[in-house]
Amino acid sequence: MKRLQAFKYELIPTGEQKRQLSRFAGSCRFVFNKALALQQDRRQKGEKKLGYAGMCRLLTEWRNTSETGWLAEIHSQVLQQSLKDLERAFRNFFEKRADFPRFKKRGRHDTFRFPQGFNLDQTNSRIFLPKLGWLRYRNSRPVLGDVKNITVSRSGDKWFVSIQTELEVEQSIHPSGSIVGIDVGVVRFATLSDGTVFEPINSFNRYQQKQAHYQRAMSRKQKFSKNWHKAKTKVQRIRQKIANTRRDHLHKTTTTISQNHAVVCIEDLRVKNMSTSAAGTIEQPGRNVKAKSGLNRAILDQGWAEFRCQLEYKQAWRGGLVIAVPPRNTSRTCPACGHVAVENRPTQARFACVECGYEENADLVGALNILRAGHARLACGEMALLGHSTKQEPTEAIRADVGA
Fold it and tell me: What are the residue ranges in the chain where pLDDT is below 70?
């Protein structure tokens, strides 16, 4: 079968190349925002949305006009890829998979993509990009497969290149035959039904005070001054360290789980709904806002969505399966007698059945109930195809430190 995979490396550009990379990212952001503004204007006027082909024709006009003629200095296909991204964002909105597309801000998610015209020289650890020339990169591991496209992105003050490849591999058969249920939480990051516990890393909580210190220093600087930009760089580096620490912990945890279990049962959590604000409105203010804010911060710090995403593609690569089950009453159901009651969980960590007296850790009980629900889906033939071999790892989400 064919497998899509991406290899991410840090670029080592010169000063002039950094300026060119910023120009490419800024031009793509400009085209995206200009096209989005045009689509919004047509929508307000009741006109039909312009398709990708129509937007490409307008892009040609923008490149040939005096006001935006500087776009001609940017590779045309890179700008077209921005229009493709906008088209995909509208498609996700119309299919109710995402919110309405929003304008891109400078310094956030600066990225652009080359569909062709590139050249990779792994021997000398360099890569050729049209209109940018040869750029050096930190060659941490070899690129496998046929290169399909290359994405350049900025994180903080560093530039990265993600090389997507297509690789022909044999259909894998998982070496293990075990099935396990996983209950995720805040106090315990992941509790498996066999009793294994993975402790949380809490990367944001670890660096929260340090980040706040740099943010206060940044707020005292004159906005957009040189000192302000220096302070902003320090804040970005802390945020990048938080994200890298969390990602590394998730990779190590998911790799361990996928290596030891052929079938993994998890809860189909809606993290966005779980972490909504409790502030309310002026007319109807919320209650316990501070406590709910702290809980939301702790939930988002765990990275449950990324945890599930990594489990899915790693299980698919190893020939395993991921089954998502409804989370309803998984922590209130007694695994011994099946009695369901709110009173079964007197505290956050303790489970005590009021019917039969069964006592155990609440997270372990949740994992056992998730495992039972996964067995039921397997028996009924209603397997969630999240871990099927057709599932691929997201192109932009693959990092060079993936050890799986």
Answer: 382-404
Q: What is the pTM of this model?
A: 0.87
Residue-wise pLDDT for 63-85, tens only, equals: 999 999 999 999 999 999 999 99
Residue in 85, 110, 312, 363 annotated catalytic? 363
Task: Tell me which of 183, 301, 312, 393 is the catalytic residue.
Answer: 183
pLDDT at 76: 95
- 357 CB-near residues (< 8 Å, 6+ apart): none
**Helix (H/G/I), strand (E/B), else coil: 159:** strand
Are 349 and 185 spatial neighbours (Cβ–Cβ below 8 Å)? no
Sheet of 197-198, strands arranged across: 197-198, 190-192, 179-184, 263-267, 321-325
SS3 of residue 9 by DSSP: strand
| Domains of the chain by start residue, with CATH | 2-168 (no CATH), 179-199+252-387 (3.30.420)
Active site residue 363: yes
- Beta strand 158-168 pairing with 126-129: unpaired
Nearest C-alpha neighbor of 364 from the set 152, 213, 192, 165: 192
C-alpha pair distances (Å), 132 with each of 10, 60, 75, 219, 309: 16, 21, 9, 35, 33
Active site residue 87: no
| CA distance linking residue 78 with residue 131, whole number of Å | 11
Query: Which one is catalytic: 85, 87, 110, 267?
Result: 267
pLDDT of residue 284: 78
